[in-house]
Amino acid sequence: MKIAIIPARGGSKRIPRKNIKEFSGLPMIAHSLLAARATGMFEHVLVSSEDDEILSVGAAYGGEPLRRPPELATDHAATIPVIRHAVAWAEAQGWPVEAACCIYATAPFTRAEDIHTGWSLLKAHDMDFAFAATTFPYPVFRGLLHDGDGVRMIFPEHFPTRSQDLPEAIHDAGQFYWGTPRAWKEEERLFTVRAAPVMLPRHRVQDIDTPEDWRRAEVLWRLLQCESLDAK
Predict the structure, then answer these.
(1) What is the 8-class DSSP label of residue 10?
(2) Which member of 19, 37, 98, 194 lies 3.0 to 4.6 Å from 8 by CB, making a disulfide possible if both were Cys?
(3) Residues 31, 112: contact at Cβ < 8 Å?
(4) Are 142 and 44 in contact (CB under 8 A)?
(5) pTM above 0.90, yes or no
(6) Taking the CB of residue 100, how many other CB atoms lie within 10 A of it?
(7) Would you identify the CATH topology of the domain 2-134+172-231?
(8) Which residues are 103's β-sheet partners?
C-alpha cells in the first residue's frame, strides 16, 4: 500500500492561512490533493494538521483528516517527524504501508507524472527517498555573501574558474518526497546518496514562503496555463 501525506499546520506567519488561501480559484491545499488523487496510486491521502478548518477543507477535496499532536504543530516543527507520526499512525491502523509520499500543501505546480517518476526511482534504485529537485539558475560556487559594507565569495577558490567549468548544482524543489516507512520512522537524513532526485524544469518550481513568492507563483501559474492552451 502507498499513502500520501500532506502536512498543513495552521500557524503560518508570513502568509496567514496560506495552506487554504485561494490560489487560482481553489484553496492552495486543493492543488496538492488533486495532484495526489490524479496519480491513481494512493490508497489513502492524509492531511496532517492541528487546525479544524484545514482538516475540513482538505476533506472537501478528498483528503482524510489526521490530527497531529500539538508538539508537531509549532513554528519549529520539522517535516520528517510529522511524516513519521503519520506513517506510525497508518501502520497502527493495520495498513501495510509500502511507501509514503509527503506532498507539501503549498506546491501547486506538483504534477501526477512527476510523483509517478519519483515512485519509479525509489523502487528501481532501492532508495530511501526520492524527491523533486531542480537546478540553480546561477553557479552556486560563484555565490556571494553580503555581510557589512562589502561582499565576499563563499568559495573564493573559484574566483578564476569559468562558470561553464563548474559542476551544476541542484536544490530541493519543495514539492514532494517519497520515502520508505523505515526511513521516515527512523528519521533518516533526506539528502544523501540514498536519495534520488526527480529533476524538474525551473519554470515549474516556486517555493512559497513570502508574499513575494506567492505573487511570483501566480505569475508562473498564468504562464503555464497559457503554455498549456498553446500546446492544444
Answers:
(1) S
(2) 19
(3) no
(4) no
(5) yes
(6) 27
(7) Spore Coat Polysaccharide Biosynthesis Protein SpsA; Chain A (3.90.550)
(8) 176
